[in-house]
Every structure is written in C-alpha cells, then in structure tokens.
DNA sequence: CCTCGATGAGACAAATTTGTCTCATAAGGG
DNA sequence: CCCTTATGAGACAAATTTGTCTCATCGAGG
C-alpha cells in the first residue's frame, strides 16, 4: 500500500532524464502514482530534485567505497569504479545535466567530496606513472562524467548494449581509441 | 537598430546551456533585447529551439566540411574536427542535452547525416588499423559528443582552460589516459 | 467485521509563463 | 527634415503548472 520512496525517485529520475521539463504530473504518472501522493512525499518540485541529488550522491559514495580506489593499480581501480557506478548511471546522467542545482547557492558539498576522491584517483595514477601527465586529473574526472552520461544515454537509446556499459567507458577512458602496436 | 539574429541565437544558446528551463524573458534579457522583439524573430519557444537546432546542424556540417575527414590519417582528421567544432561547442552542449528535440516526431534528419559522417570517420580509422576494433564506431561517436559537452561545460565553469579545449578532447579520445611506454 | 492510514481522483485558486496587442520612441535612409 | 521601420515597455488574456484541499476508496491489521 505504502509507496516505495526509493522506487519513486528512480522512476522520477528516468522520466526527468528523458524529458528534463517534465511536469509533476508526468513524473507522478511515470512513477505509477498520483500527483497528490507525489506531493505528499516531496513538498514540491524543488524538493524532488534535491531528493534526487541526495540519492545520487549517496549512490556515488557507495560506488566509490565499493570500488576501493586506493587498492591496486589506478587503472584497475577505475575499472571497478565504472562497474560500481553503473546502476546509478541513469540518475547521474540526469543530475549532471541538471545545472539548476548550483543556481544561486553553492554546489552541494557532497559533489565536492566526490569530485575530490575521483580526482585523487587520477592523480595517483599520474604519480605512479600509469597515467599521462598532460591531461589534468580535473579534466579526466570531467571526461569520466561525460562518458558515463553518454554511455547511459546511448544505452537508453539502444545504440550500445547495456552489458558493454562499463567496458566501453573504462577502456576508452584508459586506453583511448588508438590501437596499440603491441603491449 | 536591427537585431542580429545569429547573435541572438548564440546568446540564447549560452543562456539555455546555463539554465535549460529559462523563460523567454530570461532568454531575451540574456540576448540584450526585449521579449517582444524576441517573439518577433521567433514565433515561440519551440521555434527558438528549432532555430537553435538548425544553427547547430549548420555549424557542425561546416566543421565537418572544414575538417576534411577523408584526408590523412583518421587520427589527424579527428583532431581537425575537434578543432573546427570548438566554436560550436557551447551550442552543441545545449543541443545534446535537449532531448526534447526528438519528442514525438523523429530525430532531425540533419543529425542523422552528421552521425553517419562521424561514424564513418571512426570506421575508416578501424579499417586502416589506426583504431581498435573492440570499441564500435557508434560508441566512439557518442563518446566524442560526451567529451565535447563535458569540455564545453568545464571551460564555462573555469575548470579547464579554453585554449586546451581541442587538445584535451582529441588526445583523450585518441590516446586515452594511459601513459604510453614509448612511441 | 471494524478501524486506521495511505492512496487516487478531482476541484480549486495562485503563480508562472506564454503569446498577442498597443503605443511611444529611436534609428536610419531618402 | 521627414518617413519608414524596428524596437522597448508594458498591458492583457489564455494556457500551463503548481500547491492545497476534500472526499471516496482500498487494504492491512487488530
């Protein structure tokens, strides 16, 4: 009987990813509930977006933790990270393009924490000689976000297979498109 | 006295990139004109978006032509393409996230043409042995879009230098983050 | 069987946005 | 200098969206 708040948030994210300007009514229908119930759980549109942001941050932090970024090579850690972040990719794809989040006030502190942890991973890869140093850790991080978003969208559109998600992102980000002569 | 339609479109794109839900009034102010004048040039919000789409397609096609994708190595062609597409990156970043464009009716034919040409470039690189074959041309194309969007946004936010734009995208896409042992 | 709590459907006003209109003004060409 | 044209400011109604409310219904648990 009771609505599963988490499930509502996921449906809302999916709907808003498809159409960022969805009305509360469209979001409610996409979640299979009525607009009244949606309002009972989230005070308004802003509150809904904020809740999505919180959920996204939580899932990302969980993914970062599960990926154990400090262990093994930076490349392997990155591969683990991409794999762990896959379930949250749809939500992420929406949040990344939701630039309204930093409107007026500052960016959510949670994103800053995540940014730092990911940047540190790339920095570690540079310091131990795995990664090239002419691409800054900040750019590599932004590129990772972009690729995750692109891949999530491509999967939604059926342009790439969902099972290839993490492979495509990690391999492109780490190895690039260029064919290696040999190892 | 007369409004520069092209300049209005560029300002509109910049404003809409910052905030996708900008009202016509916000767009007008961002363009330095009144809402009445904005309406005189574009019948409505939809017409404005469509005009932005047309402009984006035109600029992309011009970039594709200027990059001479069939000449030289695929890698060099890709580098030229990224360089040529830089002026349109802001507009592109908006259009890519504007998923409302394919709402209901089919995707604009212009995008399909562009998609094909870019995909063909990656395919050419694979056929001549430059690019690895485990990353499909379609994915490489989507990844390019994602990286262009990420880079455009990162430049806007001041996270990366504008002068590095094309280098960062092309080098990451082609070579990846991994450091090469030697050439 | 009854009660309580959550939900769906819908009404409603308020707020926002849009599209259209008028009028005054400034700019530019003849 | 005058006349044409485009613009800015603002009024206005229509449409859309939002937030709140009421009421009936459904289902679980006692």
TrEMBL record, chains A, B:
GO terms of molecular function: DNA-binding transcription factor activity; transcription cis-regulatory region binding
Keyword annotations from UniProtKB, A to Z: DNA-binding, Transcription, Transcription regulation
HTH tetR-type domain boundaries: 2-60
Organism encoding this protein: Streptomyces aurantiacus JA 4570
Protein name according to UniProt: Putative HTH-type transcriptional regulator nfxB
Keyword Hydrolase listed: no
Source taxon at top rank: Bacteria
DNA-binding region boundaries: 23-42
Gene3D superfamilies: Tetracycline Repressor, domain 2
Keyword DNA-binding: yes
């Amino acid at each position: 009987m009771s609505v599963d708040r988490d499930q509502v948030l996921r449906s809302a994210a999916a709907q808003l990813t498809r159409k960022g300007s969805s009305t509360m009514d469209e979001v409610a229908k996409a979640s299979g509930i009525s607009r009244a119930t949606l309002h009972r759980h989230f005070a308004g549109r802003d509150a809904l977006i904020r809740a999505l942001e919180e959920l996204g941050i939580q899932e990302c932090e969980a993914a970062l933790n599960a990926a154990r970024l400090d262990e093994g090579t930076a490349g392997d850690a990155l591969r683990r990270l991409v794999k762990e972040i896959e379930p949250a990719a749809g939500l992420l794809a929406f949040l990344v393009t939701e630039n309204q989040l930093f409107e007026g006030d500052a960016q959510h502190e949670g994103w800053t924490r995540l940014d730092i942890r990911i940047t540190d991973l790339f920095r570690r890869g540079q310091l131990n000689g795995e990664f090239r140093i002419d691409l800054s850790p900040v750019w590599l991080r932004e590129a990772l976000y972009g690729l995750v978003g692109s891949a999530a969208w491509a999967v939604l559109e059926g342009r790439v297979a969902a099972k290839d998600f993490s492979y495509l992102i990690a391999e492109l980000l780490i190895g690039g498109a260029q064919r290696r002569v040999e190892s």
